Amino acid sequence: MTKIIDKNKARQGRSGWQVLVVLVCALILALVVWWGVGMFGSAIEPENPVGGAPAEQPAEEAPAAPQTQ
Fold it and tell me: What is the largest CA-CA distance in the chain?
């Protein structure tokens, strides 16, 4: 014979708000670390990088060809 069990008793765990608190705290900590690494990267970035690709210069305009009539 099959037992009929209430669906709330059949769950494996309680609905825990503690897990939500841990996940939100972990997300906040990850954002703080990401911000800190970004600030550190900006602080150590050289002002004149060496060995990078040369900056592109705008092309000079070609002189207009004389118009023939």
Answer: 105
What whole-number distance in Å separates Cα of residue 31 and Cα of residue 61?
48
Domain ranges of the chain: 18-42
Cα 44 to Cα 37: distance, rounded to the nearest angstrom = 11
Q: Which two tokens stand for residue 34?
A: 């990401």
Cα–Cα dist 65/69, whole Å: 13
Q: What pTM, to 2 d.p., does this model score?
A: 0.51
More confident call, 27 vs 57? 27
DSSP at 26 = H
